[in-house]
Structures are given as C-alpha cells and as structure tokens.
Design goal:
- The structure is a homodimer.
- The first copy, chain A, has about 450 residues and is α/β, with parallel strands linked by helices.
- In chain A, about 40% of the residues lie in helices and about 15% in strands.
- In chain A, the strands form four sheets. Chain A has a six-stranded mixed beta sheet, sandwiched between helices. In chain A, strands 7-6-5-8 form a four-stranded parallel beta sheet, sandwiched between helices. Chain A has a two-stranded antiparallel ribbon with strand order 1-2.
- The longest helix of chain A has 20 residues.
- Chain A is globular and about 65 Å long.
- In chain A, about 60% of the residues are buried.
- Chains A and B meet through helix 5, helix 7, helix 9, helix 16 and helix 18 of A and helix 5, helix 7, helix 9, helix 16 and helix 18 of B.
C-alpha cells in the first residue's frame, strides 16, 4: 500500500515542517534557457484590463476579498502591472525537469502539406502531467506552501488540470482535492488514476459533499456537470477550511502570468533560429492560459516595438466564447460564488454538447485574453471538431506526437493557414499537450 | 475520416515512390549529442555469443535463412562484430525529436530517501510512443523501407512495441499489422487506439487469421495469449507475403544494437557531470533491449578499460527468466517457427500469471544479455510486483514522472540499493518509459 503524501493524523506542525523542507531548493542545475522571470502583459497593454468586481457590491475587488481563497503572493500578481516578476528558485528547479520545452520545426509536416512556409510547434506535452498546466500548478502550490496552506482544492474538466495540481501537490507536500466534471469523471478513469498516483483525491461533480453540489443535483439529478459547477464546489470547500486554499487552472491573470514562460522561451528559441519575428502564432483557447502563455510575450513586443506578429486564438465551434459570446461581466462559476469577471462569455449556465471531446469546455474566457481580443490585439477563429481531429491525425502521422484534442484546434488553424501561405512565411503553433490519455476520442474519429 | 498511410488500391510503384520520399532526410538540425553510431558489444565480449540455430538442421543460421523475414542490413547487423555501426541520417533526424533523452539527477528522490548516494535516471519516456522502443522501431522500419518492403508485421504484449512500430510505420510510410496478446488487447484499449491513430492495424492473438492462431485456439479456445503465440502469427503472415517483413521489438542482437544510443548518451552525460564511472546501473529486463541499450556501452568499457561499473538486470519475480530459467537453446515463439536461440528461458509454453501487470512477460531473454549474465559480466535480481509498484509511486511523488510498470523494477532495484549505499555512490537507473497508459494497474495498487 502506498504511503499517502499527508499521513493520517499528522499534526499541523509536522505537516508544515514536511512542506517547508519540500519548498527548499535542492541545488539542481537549471539551464540558462529556463526563464528567470515571468512576463506580465499588463505592463504593456494600451488600456488596463477591467477589474474583477465583488459579486455583492459590484465594486472592484480588494485584495482582502480574495484572501480566503488565494495566497497573498498570487493576489498581488493578479493585479500587478510590473512587466517582469521573478520566478522562485524552487519553481525554476522543478520547471527545469521539462523546460525549456522544445520548439521544433515541423519539417515532415511541411513535406506532407507541400508548403514552403516554415511551421514550428512549441511542445508542452513533455511535462510529467502531459500538458502546459504544471507551469502554473507548481507556482500556485509553491506560494500556498510557503504561506502555511496545507491543502488545495480545485475543479477539473478533462482532467489535465486536476492531474497537474495533484503533481504539484506531491512535489510540494500539499493535500489536493479535485472536483471533476461528472461526464469526464465517468469517461476518463485514467486521469483519475493519475491524480491518485500523485496522492490527490478526485470526486465527480456535482457531488453530495457540498451545498452547491447538492443544490445542483436537486435541480437536475442527471446532470453531467460543468466546469462552472465544479468550481462552485471547490471554492465552497476551500472557503470553509482555514488551512485550505483554492487553485484555478486558467482564466485569472496570475495563471496567464505563470504560463508566459512558454512564449518567452519560444521567442528566444526563434531568435536563435534566425526567425525572431514569426508571421503568425496559433494557440488553442479554452480558458485561455496556454494561448496567453505562448502569445503574450509576442503581443507585448508588438506593442513595445511595433513588430506585427499576428496572434490567433483557436477555439472549438462547440464552445465558442470568443467568436460567439458576449463581452460583459459574468460569474466564473454556476453558483455565483466567484468574483464577476469582464470576459467573453456564453453565460455561466452554458453546457457544451456531449459530443465535444476533450477540454476547452469553459463558458467564459480569461479576462485578459478577452480584453486583448476586444482591443484587436489578437484574432479568434472557431474550429469544428472533425477538422480538429483530422489535423491531429495528420500531425501525428507526420511528426509522431499525438496532440491533445485541445491542441488540435491550433494544429488545424496552422495547417489551414500553411496550405495558402507564402514561401518562407513563419508559422508557430502551440502544442499544449499530448493526447495519450484522450486516445478513445481519437479512436472514435479514426 | 482520416486518410490511411497507405491508400487503398495503391499500386506498388506508387507506394515505393511515397516511401522513398519519406526515407529522405529533411535537413533537420541534429544535436551533436545524438550519437552518430550504434555501439555493438559483440566487438568487446571475451567469448562470442552462441549463434542462432536453424530449427530444422540445428546448424548455425545462414544469412539467407533470415531473408524472408528481415532486411539484409538488419541480418548483417545481427551477426556483425564491428564495434561501431553508422546511424543513417534519416534515423538520426527522427531520433533528434526526443534524443538525447534526459539524464536527470533525482535530487528530490534522494531527499525523500535520505540518501547521500547520487541517483540518476535516464528517461526514455519522452519519445512519442512513451518508451525506448522507437529507437529500434525507426531503424528497422528505415532499413526495410529502403529495401523495398512496404509492410511490417509484429507482435506486442502490453502494446509499447506495437505502438512504436506503428509510429515508425507512419513516419516512413509502411503498413504495420500487429498481433497483440489477447489479455492486453482486452485490458488496454488505449494502446490499440494509439496504433490506429498511427495508421496501424491491431488484432488480438491468438487470432483466426493465421494457421498458428487457429491451432492455438483449437487447443485452448479461452487462452489469454502470450508473446510467443503472437510471434508465431506475425512471422507466419510476413513469411507468406513477398512485400512484407517481420519486426521484433527485443531479444535479437540488432535490436540491442539500436538501443545502444541510450547508454552511449548516458556515458557522455555522466562524463559532462563529472561522474563518468557510475558504481552501479539498474535496468529492467523483459526481452532485454532497454537493459542492453543502457548497460552495454558501460560493459564494453569495463571490458576494454577495466572500469568496474556493476550492471544489474531487474526482472519481475512473476517472469524470472534470468534468475530461474535454464540457459539453453529454445525457440523464440510457441509454434517453433523462429530460429533456436541460446538464452535463459522458462520454456516457450510459459504464460505468466494474469496478476502480473505490464510488459516483461516474455519466456526467454535476449541471447546476448543471457550470454553476458552467463559470463558474469552482469548480475540479475527478481523484484516482486508490489515492491515494484511501491517504488513507482514513491518515484512519481518525488520526481513527478510516473514510471512504466516495466521501469518500476529498475526503480525498485535502485531504491533498495540507495537505502544502504555509501555517501557519494553513483547509481544510474533506466526509466525505459512512462506509465501513463498503465494507470489502471497503478490504481489497483494505490
């Protein structure tokens, strides 16, 4: 029987000591290509991002409003306008296990397409959890750990985020409790097992463990759940436990910040390859964190230096917040427990059609990504599921990596563009994760 | 609907043209750390490996005996005693997607164990198929492709090899047909999906598609299959098709040769870290290819230069060919279609207990590994399944990567050694793959 991360009947003093030890650097060598700072696009935007509002007063949130749920360092990052924020050494050491992530010229895909464009992919699927999510999971776990928190709660859809936070909890000694959208909980048992191997606990949502969950089940006992519902449950549990906080895998500003390592590395890697200003970058968009991480450093450079790299958000046609949603204040969850966020939203009660595979199922979109699209700093396109999977299979057979279903939306955007691109045009696509745990969805398509 | 790798009704001329294009280098940059040559331990052994025998005559096999099944270049490699064999540029380019594979100091595991030994892991799970198997799959597919073969057949157990050969088939344009041990075919649908995404075809074995399969089913209609049975089926189909060859994922000398890139890189990486002569190396052993790939370059150095790195094969207690088998000539398959191989064997009819998870289920062991153990150049230990999984969970929670069940045997060997090691002792373990597609086996354990 495996020892748990957090032994039963452990005293709080012992837990804090154990966690303290795990937050210390090990002295591991960190390659110089691993960024030393996160990049904060808020420093370069022509207009500030509209503030999050208190749901009771409709007034801009104060830092203390968030303290029941988030570490102070993360709250500061949420509203910071500093351009660069230093990455703690322990976080850099953990990043160094899979960072810098590879930026690869897709020469075999180019040959298969017969294009003379240069296609590069930035691959985040080599992290232990298989996606970009650990970039922020490790940072969030770290700041909570050094502030005396011993437990994190969260929601997850397809499971990438729940697995990533469970991984971060294992590395830094925190208990992790996850509410997973019921439809995915039933369909994706491997993800649940992944969380459990890391010592996390995973419940289907809605559950009977929370008031919010019980209310949702009373309203519709057969609901397959939604991210908005699962967020309500995780937030409720964190708010009721003085030693627990809540962690969000996307949407919020500090999450976008942590993901900036993707784009910072990509910019450096392209420069080393002599392609420093790509013509266009495609990123998939659900809550927005992979897209923001890859593109914001380039957006900042466009704004500061007048470069003209085009940035394209690729979202699923089945959950089209940017291309079909309204830009307005809305809640991040179904129960209305979160702050009001100014974002493109399909309405917090939106449940994507069951046929839609994988992640990218959130009703809203990162406020900062929404703001950038609203200002015309970034474009958005919607990709149909069959086109996304076709692009994923074409990519897998040419390049070997099976893209995550989420990432196939960016692959489809890039391939469609490449088929009509000019000679030598430089196209970058964000491969946010691998699709190994989503193979049944591929099999249905194939 | 996905386009197949090999369009229906394609003429042979068109297939050869398509495959020819895919075997050409793309001009991709290949890092200097990717080896330019494979290392062949046969050049340094104090006694030659006993030859494979013809099953009809009991005389040493002649190259032409193998030509119905294998590419000429591979047959030459099988009997070569050249120390270094050049890696074709197209193969190096494909290797460069995941090679050099990381050699990582497991500082967080060392801290968890409280050891002052230095533990390194050489991680092969970052390949697109998630294991070391593509190192030989790509090489075998390449040599067959340039010799005019358009189809490969093979067997697979847990599915790592079938997925890897399907990947190689996709990259180089070959049709791939896989017979998977029935027990795994039923229990591991994700692996089958992985093969299909790459355009491969997967049948449960025994199947009704071959004489060998029908005979086995007649004998026991409820058999859960074995690698030996699946080999018989794949060999039968390849032998009956003038444009098809057979590919083996382990056991044979040329497979060990291709895997030598693991150990060559590790030796270079350790030298750069100032730990050029490790005290001990642990590798898991099923058919022997990962173990051989990691350890043979060090064995060769021990023999040539008198270094004393101890090499340890870690096999499952449930399938203990090296520690419990007999060293004698045996068939590689159940039906007796293969040559006779001098190896440690549990007998070709051996079927491991159903409780045994993952791979490492083969009745025999690579002749060259067997020879090395017989000569005392390498040690062997057996690891119980629960101890292996316990080590895997400990490793995952400390280092983030969930090891493949196969690899956990090496992890267990290394951890047991580290708990009693001297300060500064240098321990290397082979992490042959990740366990993402084996999570249900972990869940049963957790």
């Amino acid at each position: 029987m495996a020892e748990p991360n957090h032994p039963a009947h452990e005293t709080r003093e012992h837990a804090l000591q154990r966690i303290h030890e795990l937050t210390q650097p090990t002295g591991a060598a960190v390659p110089s290509q691993v960024p030393t700072h996160w990049y904060n696009v808020a420093a370069d935007l022509p207009e500030p991002v509209p503030p999050h509002l208190h749901p009771g007063t409709n007034q801009p949130l104060q830092p203390e409003d968030l303290e029941p749920l988030f570490a102070k360092a993360l709250i500061e990052q949420e509203v910071s306008t500093e351009r660069y924020i230093e990455i703690p050494q322990t976080v850099r050491e953990i990043y160094a296990q899979w960072r810098p992530s590879p930026l690869v010229r897709a020469l075999r895909l180019e040959r298969a397409l017969g294009t003379k464009a240069h296609i590069y992919y930035k691959y985040e699927g080599g992290s232990p959890a298989g996606s970009h999510k650990p970039n922020t999971a490790v940072a969030q776990a770290y700041y909570n750990a050094i502030e005396g928190v011993t437990k994190l709660t969260t929601e997850t859809g397809a499971g990438q985020w729940g697995a990533s936070l469970s991984l971060a909890g294992a590395l830094l000694g925190l208990e992790v409790e996850v509410w997973q959208v019921r439809a995915s909980y039933d369909a994706k048992p491997y993800r649940r097992a992944q969380m459990e191997v890391y010592g996390g606990t995973c419940h289907p949502s809605p559950s009977t463990l929370t008031e919010a969950g019980r209310a949702m089940l009373a309203k519709d006992p057969n609901t397959t759940g939604s991210l908005g519902m699962a967020i309500s449950e995780a937030v409720e549990v964190a708010a009721g436990d003085p030693h627990a906080h809540y962690a969000l895998g996307s949407v919020l500003n500090h999450v976008m910040l942590h993901q900036s390592v993707i784009g910072e590395e990509a910019m450096q890697q392209l420069t080393e390859l002599g392609e420093s200003v790509p013509d266009v970058i495609f990123g998939c968009a659900g809550g927005g964190s992979n897209l923001a991480g890859l593109t914001f450093p380039f957006m900042g450079r466009n704004l500061r230096e007048g470069t003209t790299t085009r940035l394209v958000a690729c979202e699923p046609a089945a959950c089209p917040s940017l291309t079909q949603g309204e830009y307005r204040y809305d809640f991040g969850d179904v129960a209305g427990l979160t702050p009001l966020l100014k974002m493109y939203t399909l309405g917090r009660d939106f449940v994507p059609p069951a046929i839609h595979a994988g992640g990218l199922r959130y009703h809203g979109m990162s406020p900062i990504v929404s703001h950038a699209v609203h200002l015309g700093l970034m474009d958005a396109i919607a990709v149909a599921q069959n086109d996304a999977f076709a692009a994923g299979v074409l990519f897998a057979r040419a390049e070997g990596i099976i893209p995550a279903p989420e990432s196939t939306h960016a692959v489809a955007g890039a391939i469609a563009h490449a088929r009509q691109a000019a000679d030598g045009e430089v196209i970058v696509l964000g491969l946010s994760g691998n699709g190994v745990l989503d193979l049944p969805a591929y099999e249905q398509y194939v």
